[in-house]
Amino acid sequence: MKIIVCIKQVPATTAEKRYRADLRLDRAASEAVINPLDEYAIEQALRLQESGAVESVGYLSMGPEQAGEALRRALAMGGDEAYLVTDAALAGSDAWATARVLAAALDRLAPDVALMGMASDDARGSLVPAAVAAMRGVPLLSYGSELQLHGTTARVRRLTAAGFDMLEAPLPVVASVTDQVGEPRYASLKGIMAAKRKPMETWSLADLGLAPADLHGAALTRVVEIRKPEAKPPTERIENVGPDEAVTRIADWLAARKLI
């Protein structure tokens, strides 16, 4: 049984974001980290490996050469091997192009489970897992608070407002997990040293049998404008009034905005 965890290197959440003249994010200007939501997928995969449910955990990323740092960081947490797809033609890739490349790489690796976080911190689209599953023609088990493997079947526990649902599908599958799987582990000094000796392969588009023309210029979408978020209106406070009047004023405030 083999799991490949797809991870992405993103700007740190608290880092100041800058945009280039072509309206693309200047990733070199910010500290780069593993997408925080991908760390939960890493943790889930490693727990399954520790339980004996899977024999091998690998990592896959698409990005510039420096994305290899995120893969090494993942290997320091655990796992066995890593794969980086990097190519100048991939600069500015959107969700569709990313899914196309990851799908091709996963077809080559042929894992039982391709595991992902629920979203990337820099885009929050949550589109890639479903797109990869569709392109590969395999089932999607998304937004799991836990991933379970039983023989030739994968199952996710998905929390809902009324409790939880159990979804299952035959292997191979693409799955995504949320931050409810459990707190990701820290990379130990021993793990960091061991990660330097673990294998990491680098692939180009040609290695995957793809050409730049297959990706339509790396994006089917384009950014036409960037702007800062609108300023929030000042907070309205109700003070120095009795409880009855406070309740009435809050109800009037909500009704005026058609919230009740």
CATH level 1 name: Alpha Beta
- Determine the strand fraction and express it as a percent band: 15-25%
Q: What would CATH call the architecture? A: 3-Layer(aba) Sandwich
| Alpha-beta classification | alpha/beta
* Distinct helical segment count: 6
Structure commentary:
The protein is 27% helix and 24% strand. The model has no long low-confidence stretch (mean pLDDT 92). It starts with a strand and ends with a helix. The strands form three sheets. The protein has a seven-stranded parallel sheet, sandwiched between helices. The protein has a three-stranded antiparallel sheet with strand order 8-9-10, with no helix packed on it. It has a two-stranded antiparallel ribbon with strand order 2-3. With 260 residues, the protein is an alpha/beta fold. It has one domain (2-215): Rossmann fold, CATH 3.40.50.620. Strand 4 (56-62), helix 2 and strand 5 (81-85) form a beta-alpha-beta unit. The chain is globular.
